[in-house]
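RECORD TYPE: inverse folding
INPUT: structure tokens
STRUCTURE:
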């Protein structure tokens, strides 16, 4: 059974897509922790970071690198938390590698 993110990548489930290329995709989180909360995925399904081939990891990083300032600018954020939950015990709910870009604002009260 493909993950929900594979289904989004295949266009079978709708999402608010903010970026897409041959290898990667970014869309807004369905349950955002802040305005602009974005998820970046490899389109192919890899459960954990160590499963991602180096060339795909490189593409994924390039997309993250490009999107972090764009997401911050889009919601006028002061900073962002950029994070992977890697494995169930770390809070990873969807077993398809994804990077959270979580916009942060002065005084939003947290270091995570
Ligand atoms: P995790 O806890 O696995 O690191 O994060 C999974 C994230 O995926 C959560 O923030 C959750 O809100 C988001 N999410 C789960 N299902 C969907 C979905 O169907 N569509 C979108 N856009 N986000 C989802």
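DESIGNED SEQUENCE:
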């Amino acid at each position: 059974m493909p993950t929900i993110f594979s289904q989004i990548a295949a266009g079978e489930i709708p999402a608010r897509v903010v970026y897409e290329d041959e290898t990667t995709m970014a869309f807004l989180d369905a349950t955002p922790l802040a305005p602009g909360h974005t998820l970046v995925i490899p389109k192919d399904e890899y459960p954990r970071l160590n499963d991602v081939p180096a060339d795909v990891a490189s593409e994924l990083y390039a997309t993250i690198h490009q999107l972090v300032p764009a997401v911050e600018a889009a919601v006028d954020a002061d900073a962002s938390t950029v994070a992977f939950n890697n494995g169930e015990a770390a809070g990873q709910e969807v077993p398809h590698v994804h990077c959270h870009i979580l916009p942060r604002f002065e005084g939003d009260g947290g270091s995570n």
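NOTES: Residues 4, 15, 27, 29-31, 39, 85, 91-94 surround guanosine-5'-monophosphate (CB under 6 Å).
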